Each structure stands twice: as C-alpha cells, then as structure tokens.
Amino acid sequence: GIRPFTPAQGIRQLERLLVTSAVQVAAVDIDWVRLAQRVTLSFLADLIAQEHVHDGGTTAEAASVMRRRLQALAPHERHGAVATLLQEQLSQVLRTPVHTLGLRQPLSELGIDSLMTVELVNRVEAQLGLTLPMAILLENPTIAVLTDRICDLLAPAAPLIAAPNRFVDEVGGVADAYFARAVTDLAAEARLDPALQIAAAGAAPQSTAHQIFLTGATGFVGSFLLSELLQKSAAQIHCLVRATDIADGRRRIAATLKRICPDGEPALERIHIVPGDLAQPQLGLATGEFDRLAEQIDLIIHGGAQIQWLATYAQLQASNVRGTEAILRLAATGRPKPLHYISSLAVFPMMQPGMSPHFGEDSPLDHDGVLFGGYAQSKWVAETLVASAQERGLATMIYRPSLVVGHSQSGIWQGHNIIVNMLRSWIELGMAPDIDADLDLVPVDYVSRSIIQLALGNNNRTNSERANNVYHLNNRQTVSVRELIEWLVAAGYPVRRIPYQAWRAEMMKRGDRQRQVVLDAVGPLLALQVSEEIGWLERLPRFANQRTRQALNGLSCPTVDEATFQRYVGYLRQSGVFPSKL
C-alpha cells in the first residue's frame, strides 16, 4: 500500500512542508485500498480518533469555555492562570522550554520576531476567544505586562476588544490594532541635527557624476538601480554592502546581478565594495574611511532600507532613520554631494476621516495624518530629515514609489516581496479575502529607469533649480484584489474568494499547522484589513504624478494587466516560489 514517488514529487512535498511548523513529518504516497487490506482496522481507527481530537482542540466553543473559567476566578488566580497560558503558548511559538521564559523579560529578548508576534496573537485569540490588538505585542511588553492587559480584557465588564488610543476618533480600535502614530507625535524624531550644515550652499555640482555611492544594491529595487547605472553611465559605483569583507560583498553583488540579468552579467570592474551597515553609526565605517569616501564620491543614491511591514518604528529606526542621517552627513562632509533619496508613498496617511485624500508631489509632509506601522513611520521621519537638509542648502531629489512588483518584460520578481508572499499564501491556502480594493502596482524596471534617468539628467542643475523636486513613481492604472484572484485562477490555481470575516476566521484556525503561509496572508493585508473593518476602502488615497510624467519625457509606467501577471507567475514557478499548477 506504500508507493514510491519521484524526486520531483519529493521536492514539491518539501516545498509544502517547509512553510509548516511541524518538527517531524513523513511524506508517503499511499494506496488506501491496498493498505486497508494489510492493516488492522483498530490501528486506522486510533489514527482517525487522534486526528479528530487534534482538530477540535481550539474551536470557538472551547475558547468560550476557557474564557468563562478564567472570568470565574478571583483576580489574583486569573492573573496566574493567564501568565501560565501565555508562557505555554510562547513556548510553542519559540520552540523552547517554559521554564526558560522569564515573566519580566521583554518579548524581543526572549527571541520573538514580527512573524512570531502574529502567531502568538493568533494562538491567544484562539485560546480565549477575544481580540488582542497587535500593538500590544509590537510595544515589546514582558509576559507580566501582557498578562495585565489580557486580564483587563477578561474582566467581567470588559468588552472583548481592547480600548484603543484614539489618534483619530473615526479610526477607533483600528489605530491600536496596527500600531498607529500621528505624524505630530513623530515630529520630535524628525529634527535634523543643527550641527549638520552644508558648505558652499547653492554651488553648482559637477555636470557628470564620475563616482556614485549606492546603498541597497543587494535589495530588489537597488539591484535594478545598480544594473541601470552600469548600463546608462560610465561612473565608478561604490556599493554599501553588509559583508564581512570586500570579497564577501563582491560575491553578494555578483549573485544579485546574476539573478536579475540571466542573459549576461554586467561588467563588475566598475563596482567598488564598501563593507558597512546602515544600522551602525557612521554606516559602520571608521572615521577615516567615512571621510575618504565623502571626498571620493560626487553623487549619492540612497535606496537602502529595512522593509518589515509588521515591525515597530523602534525596530526600524536604526537602519531607516539613523542610516539616513548618516547618509546626510556623508553628503555634507567636505564638498557637498547631491543626494537622491528613495522614499515611499507610505509617507502619506492611508486613510483620512470623511474624505478621499488626494496627494500630489508638492503635498506637505506635515499633513497631520495617522501612519500605520513602523515602516511608514520610519520613511516619513527619514524623508522629513532629507527635506530639512535641502532647506539648509543640500541638493536633494526624493522619489516615492508605490508597491513595486516584478520586471514587466522578463517577469523577474523578488521571491519574498510583500505582494509575492500574499499571492503565494492564497495559492497554498486555496482561498483569498473578497476585498473591494485597488492596488497601485508599479513594475521595478519602470522604477529603476525613472530614478536613474532623473538622477543623471538632473545632476547638472543648481540647488535652486532642484527645489521641490519630489517624484511620484506610481501607476495610473490600478489592479483590484479581485482581478489578482481571477488571474491566479486563470493560471491554474483554484483560489476561492470568500468574505473577509470568514477568511480571517479561517486564518485563525490554520495558524498552528501552516504558520508561515498564514503569516504571509495576514501580514501584507493588514492595511487593507484595517480599511475593510471600518468601510474606508473606497476612500483610499490617490496620488498625482504630473511632474514625474513631464520630467520623464515619454518614459511611461507599464500597465500591470493579465498578460504581465502571467509572466510574473511563470517566473515565480520557474524559480520555485510558486508551486506548479495544483
């Protein structure tokens, strides 16, 4: 009754198993008819009984019973029981013994990351049948503090959702659920050091850049920027790379370029590796190295950033904010160098009460809005610092891409892109939320070509001519979530479209067995889920890009249509990110 399978079939099964939390697994191709003839019925019955018990352990009914039991306890007994429950659940998430989890250690010190945070929330919600706002865990509490918050929710008179910090009344509980902060609360973080001054303000830069400094070259957008620079300029390119040494950095750059240039790698002799780290003071460089680099380069393209949609501002501050401050110091040290900073449209609020916001390239950053998630907040602070440096005389250009997707012609796409993860989760789970929302998807080839064309073409302009040079790299033709689902079905993936609330409930059930897949499904859609819950999807912001289209002089953004999408699917299948047709 046990049949052999081919290596290719084994690889496909391994791909499925790698996204689960299982510790030991046997993949077996079974002929059930023949097996039933050889195995006693009692053995099969025992297996079925065990599976039935496992499936029924976290139902809503069981959660209700658990909640009532805890509510019936005296307050001090309830506190102890909840603390024990949290330790047990955290032990399962971290795969570590309960006795090693101190009640007064911050969760980050215990080893929890942003993905584990979502899993812990799912487990607690499933166990207790209450809604635990994500921000409680993103604040990096101790088990003791988290126990206090949950006990507040379990108090007999308490609602089953935590009371929010209301930055905007209409946002209600959603603000707390996705760790929202008003930009007015971030203003103190965005004050540029008064000691950073620009020498010879307003002086004209060199007409042609001969030495270009690039950050983020091993990332998705950054790798295409590097490829574009090698094709469109004769400059020497200095790449900041997290590496142990120059040889290690060169290997990383070569591997990255090979991945995005399958038809032939660009010449590497013009690439110079600068081992360093945006998250470290002075880019991880000694003072002498930093000063020598500042004297050598004559243009900076800063595209490096840590992109984690479930992280807090504090977790991203070092790389995204302090790293940008270090880049500004590099630009200002010695002869001022023009800085081309890659920001994001996420610097604008996703939602505004009672209106459908419209943001242009000159819309002010002090918009009094609310930003959801640490990534958007860190990009807002960093861009505000760049704008302050411009006011002091530094020549700057700011580029704000929307959601970046694969190459429009080759289909090459980053395997762990936020949208790729979301689509893959829909395929693996066989279902997707029926959300009435449009996504602004912009191909990476358009983003990289636009930035390099604008950066090289504007290098001979004076600082006064650069004033207000902010560019929106977005797509005028959006793609709906429902279209994405339909295109997946057309590609051979039987993805069902179900109501959002039903989809979310199903996610909670599957958290233990398909951990990574569920996290991929939940993480990228947090912003859309927030909007769905309060009916604001029809009022998501719109972005104008008239200046950008005029400056690019005929270089237009490709439409992401079904044909383009199928090229993406083909590449993701070929690279093993997507499974073959189910």
Strand order of the largest sheet: 6-5-4-7-8-11-16
The count of domains is: 3
- The CATH superfamily name of the largest domain is NAD(P)-binding Rossmann-like Domain
CATH architecture of the largest domain: 3-Layer(aba) Sandwich
Radius of gyration: 26 Å
CATH class of the largest domain: Alpha Beta
**Structural class from helices and strands?**
alpha/beta
Roughly how much helix do the residues carry, as a percent range? 40-55%
- The CATH topology annotation of the largest domain reads as Rossmann fold
Overall pLDDT score: 80
- Beta percentage is 5-15%
Q: What is the number of E strands?
A: 19
Our count of helices gives 24
User: Gap between N and C termini, in Å?
Assistant: 24 Å
Structure overview:
There is one protein chain. The longest helix has 20 residues, at 75-94. The chain is of the alpha/beta class. The two termini are 24 Å apart. Helix content is 47%, strand content 11%. Strands 6-5-4-7-8-11-16 form a 7-stranded parallel beta sheet, with helices on both faces. A two-stranded antiparallel sheet has the order 1-2. Mean pLDDT is 80; it is low at 36-58, 158-178 and 527-536. The chain is globular, with a radius of gyration of 26 Å. α5 packs across α9 and α12 crosses α18 (444-457). It is built from 24 helices and 19 strands. It folds into 3 domains: 1-39, no CATH class; 58-163, Non-ribosomal Peptide Synthetase Peptidyl Carrier Protein, Chain A (Orthogonal Bundle), CATH 1.10.1200.10; 185-191 and 211-481 and 540-574, NAD(P)-binding Rossmann-like Domain (Rossmann fold, 3-Layer(aba) Sandwich).
